[in-house]
Amino acid sequence: MRVGTIVLDGGFTDCCVLNTAFDASNRNYRVVVARDLVRGTNEEMEEAALKMISLHLGIVVDSADLLQAWGVNADVALAHAQWPRENLHQIVNPESRPLP
């Protein structure tokens, strides 16, 4: 089985996620970033990184849309998540805003 797509989430969108997206794109992977599952150093840097990714490297989507495209119920997936959705922003960056 050959992997052709990489889906990214995590902290520091403007650093780690962006660099990983560049590396994946340079290695001919299709890049997908789950917009609601990443956080940047601040809101401005996060938006800039997501714009760069969507313009040059891949696509940026909401995780619920991605799960729907895969045929997965988002509520069921969130129920099985390791961290409660409302607390993820505190794990990534205690000064950040909560997820919607």
Briefly summarize what is shown.
The chain is of the alpha/beta class and 100 residues long. 47% of the residues lie in helices and 21% in strands.
Strand content: 15-25%
Could you name the CATH topology? Answer: Rossmann fold
Question: Tally of extended strands?
Answer: 3
The first-level CATH class is given as Alpha Beta
Topology as H/E string? EHEHEHHH
CATH architecture: 3-Layer(aba) Sandwich
| Estimated helix fraction | 40-55%
Count of helix runs: 5
Major sheet: arrangement of strands? 1-2-3
Instruction: Indicate the structural class.
Output: alpha/beta
Q: Which term fits the overall shape?
A: globular
* Uncertain segments: 88-94
Give the distance, in angstroms, between the N- and C-terminal Cα atoms.
Answer: 36 Å
What's the domain count? 1
Which structural traits does this protein have?
Rossmann fold; 5 helices; three-stranded parallel beta sheet; 100 residues; 47% helix; single chain; 3 strands; alpha/beta
How is this fold's topology laid out?
Blueprint: E1 5-11, H1 13-26, E2 30-39, H2 43-57, E3 58-61, H3 63-69, H4 74-79, H5 88-92
Parallel strand pairs: 1-2, 2-3
Structure commentary:
This protein has helices spanning 13-26, 43-57, 63-69, 74-79, 88-92, and strands at residues 5-11, 30-39, 58-61. With 100 residues, it is of the alpha/beta class. It has one domain (5-92): Rossmann fold (3-Layer(aba) Sandwich), CATH 3.40.50. It has a three-stranded parallel β-sheet. Strand 2 (30-39), helix 2 (43-57) and strand 3 (58-61) form a beta-alpha-beta unit. Helix 1 (13-26) runs parallel beside helix 2.
